[in-house]
Amino acid sequence: MDYYIVIPIHNEEAFLKSTLDSILQQTLVPKKVILVNDNSTDGTENIIDHYCTVNSLFQKLNTTSSTQHMPGSKVINAFNKGLEVLDDHYDVIVKLDADVILPSNYFKVICSHYKQNKTLGICGGFIYEQNNAGEWILNHPMDNDHVRGAIKAYSKACFKAIGGLKNAMGWDTVDELLARFNNFTIQTDATLKVKHLRPTGKAYNAKAKRLQGKAMYTMRYGFVITSIASMKMAIKNKSVKSFWNNMSGYIQAARNNTSYLVTAEEGKFIKNLRWTNIKRKIKA
């Protein structure tokens, strides 16, 4: 199977080399890798230039999507710029972060899953992050069938059906909800252990703290489901403040009549799916 990778990159001088080396070491190499240098001000572009010189697999694209490092909008703007330079001759499209180390068999296994399951829409491994003791610890959401945004791989059919990636916070949740709406399945593979070199959110702008609640509003969760999801998140993060930040973000979005990311029909499906999962977990 042929797969393309697009990597949005902003000031990743410390990590980028490790990511690109892990791509070169894949047992099934990609057909193309677009390195989107998004307004980096460190030595990132020098690293990109070196890899583009030594291997024709890599292609550089310079762009400025935003000067603020906000979750969702900046990274997806950069991803979409990279997507524009690609053709349609692929089976799988990958959105990859510039601060991960992939196991050498990563994409061979991912593509094997796509070959075996024709309804598979989104696939990925599991993220591990280093603790203070230097140990690599699993850092995954409570839903084990969720593929983290750092390592998203989409079948072409699924990617087209969901209309690509949404330019907003919550893009890596709404993509899976819309995949299911369009009758695609999601699969994670726990044997694929990906090292995430910088913990999620460490580089984000301080204004981002209420965007999760706003995302829940734009995905038409409704107040009750948003409250439940925010409470779960607060318990997981051991932070009461995160609950209030989420709810404040939701309420502010409602007051501002913020545009939805999904249609009313898609929203109804999403809400029913969320309630089904909540009831299933309560029974378990």
TrEMBL record:
Record carries keyword Ribosomal protein: no
UniProt KW Transferase keyword: yes
Any one GO MF term held by the record is:
hexosyltransferase activity
Xref: InterPro entries? Glyco_trans_2-like, Nucleotide-diphossugar_trans
Q: Which residues form the Glycosyltransferase 2-like domain?
A: 5-142
Q: Which Pfam families match?
A: Glycos_transf_2 (PF00535)
Show the stretches that span the lipid bilayer. none
Where does this protein have coiled-coil stretches?
A: none
Keywords, comma-separated and alphabetical:
Transferase
Q: Which PANTHER family match?
A: GLYCOSYLTRANSFERASE
Which protein are we looking at? Glycosyltransferase involved in cell wall bisynthesis
